[in-house]
Amino acid sequence: MTGLRELLRILQLITIAALTLALATCIERPGLLEQIDTLGTLRVATVNSASTYYLDADGPTGFEYDLIRDFAQSLGLRFDMVVMPDQQAVIDAVASGHAHLGVGVAVSEARRKRVRFTPPYDEAALEVVYRVYKHKPTKLADLSGDLVLPAHTAFADWLRANRPDIEFSVDDQANTEELMDRVASGDLTATIASEDIVDMNQRYYPNLRVAFSLDDVRQHTAWAMPDQGDMADDDTLYNEAIAFLEQVKANGRLHILRDRYFGHVKRLGFVGGHEFARQVDNRLHLWEDYFKRAGEEYGLDWRLLAAIGYQESHWDKNAVSPTTVRGIMMLTQAAASDMNVTNRRDPAQSIDGGARYFIRMLERMPDEIQQPDRTWFALAAYNIGYGHVMDARRLLEDRGRDPNLWVNLRDALPWLTQERYISDTRYGYARGHEAATYVGNIRAYFDILTWMTNNRTAQEPPALDEGKSPTVPNSEAQAENTQTISIDSPAF
Q1: Least enclosed by CB within 10 Å: which of 74, 167, 230, 310?
Q2: pLDDT tens-digit map of 428-449
Q3: Strand segments (E) across 139-260
Q4: pLDDT computed for residue 157 by the predictor
């Protein structure tokens, strides 16, 4: 009898265990988004570059950084930017689960086998670049044996699959910008890059030329996410990402960010970039201390002041315009008098007065205009006057467009030359086209000076498994709370 009771007890325990197991298998496993929400931090893998993420004097910045910050804020999450050495390492981090998301990644069929991509939110032509005065290639076949591509580029996958007749090599130690540097110096025959990166680098390397664009292939950029495996039905984070990217396309935010980081890169052209580089060598050193002194005194980046000075006078202390503005910073008589500048041809007085006049424009801007747009608004006001900038803002407001964004003001400034708009302004006609070009040129000069004077000593990126990546809260990140990272790239 005792044996029977023992057998019944064992059977009862087995039944309970079986029911527990059955119930456990019925309990839905937390989705990826729920897991991230519990963790509280979205881990984002990317590369350190001018088109994705980097640190400047004001802290973390970059097109992909701003985009992912908006996404994380929409989910109420903090996020870590985990810097990887190249895009293939980004794919590896996502595929292995070390990162929840990879951003700024070029899509290829080989990569689709390891991760799943959102629909592309950007695409760009691919361009073959070579050195001026060298033989100009006209087709891919001309490059066979001489073409060098950067490490782990998606285009290499395309070439292997579609053009096995083209011989090329991959430099595992070089990024795209470094290869373009070597092409410009004559060390390499040619490389291939997206048109945005080419435009950026042509400002710094006037010897770079575009031989031709690839008509049958374009670079598509998307976010990469883990291929869920046994969680293939878990689309929580994936769906949120797709919805977010569609939203920023529809509401114009994507366009604003693209303009902020890439809208001015074509501004100078070959001749303008070459002339600027020449004048940096010939003239900037004469006045550099004055720019630095004014920048330090008034809390401005001296390179921005120098960029203004170059746009105004090409750093010629004796420059005079047809409208009698003169000196390095081209102050009007009224502005000079207002700034207590007694001799506009005195470089020290001109630069100091110009810095103070720019500060005045910056401080007068309405509080709703945030940086970096605030600086571009102030530059426009420096050129055509505060009143005309306010007129352009009002024209935008009347037409239902946000008057606090530079991308909109740049569109509206030329309206100040058109009769149908002038009647709606307080200050009348202004050379708005000139002001828009003026700001774009200064942005380009400032970028070049920043690159030329930047400490470009490369540092090791933070390792995934050591938790060294900078954590960025929903609020504005403070530079002192992030690891300083610089990259050896002419794109900033």
Answers
A1: 230
A2: 878 888 888 889 889 988 988 8
A3: 147-150, 168-171, 191-194, 208-226
A4: 84
Q: Whole-angstrom Cα distance, residue 389 to residue 362?
A: 12
Please state, in angstroms and rounded to a whole number, the distance separating the CA atoms of residues 224 and 221. 10
Give the per-residue pLDDT at 490: 31
- For the purposes of burial, counting CB atoms within 10 Å of the CB of 161, is it exposed (0-12), middle (13-18) or buried (19 or more)? exposed
Inter-residue contact 127 to 194 (CB < 8 Å):
yes
Catalytic residue among 34, 312, 363, 434: 312
| Sign of the four-CA dihedral 470, 72, 125, 106 | positive
Coil, helix or strand at residue 343: coil
Residues 384 and 431 sit within 8 Å (Cβ to Cβ):
yes
What's the rounded Cα separation, in Å, for the pair 407 and 373?
Answer: 9
For residue 256, give Cα distances in angstroms to 252, 263, 265, 409, 473: 6, 9, 15, 12, 22
Bond before 372 cis per omega within 30 degrees: yes
> What does DSSP say about strands 168-171 and 147-150: parallel, antiparallel, or unpaired?
parallel
The answer to whether the beta carbons of residues 383 and 434 sit under 8 Å apart is yes
Which pLDDT score, from 0 to 100, does residue 376 have? 95
CA distance 108 to 199: 23
Q: How far apart are CA 196 and CA 238, in angstroms?
A: 27
Looking at 251-372, list the stretches that DSSP marks H as alpha helix, in order from N- to C-terminal side.
Answer: 253-262, 269-279, 285-298, 302-313, 333-338, 347-364
Tokens of 55: 């640190």
- Report the C-alpha gap between 395 and 222 in whole angstroms: 36
Residue 28 designated active-site: no
d(CA 200, CA 127): 13
Q: Say what the pLDDT of residue 269 is.
A: 54
pTM here is 0.63
Q: Which are the contacts of 221, defined by CB distance < 8 A and separation ≥ 6? A: 104, 105, 106, 107, 120, 121, 122, 123, 124
Strands 208-226 and 54-56: unpaired
Which residue's entry shows tokens 């087709």? 139
Which structure tokens are listed for 59?
A: 């802290």
Torsion of CA 325, 392, 374, 44, to 10 degrees: -140
State pLDDT tens for residues 10-48.
555 555 455 444 444 444 445 566 667 666 789 999 988
CB of 153 within 8 A of CB of 91? no
Nearest to 67 by CA among 123, 14, 121, 31: 121
Which of the residues in the chain have pLDDT under 70?
1-35, 37-39, 55-59, 203-204, 228-234, 264-274, 322-323, 455-492
Q: For residue 470, how far is the Cα from the chain centroid?
A: 18
> In angstroms, rounded to a whole number, what is the distance separating the alpha carbons of residues 211 and 272?
20
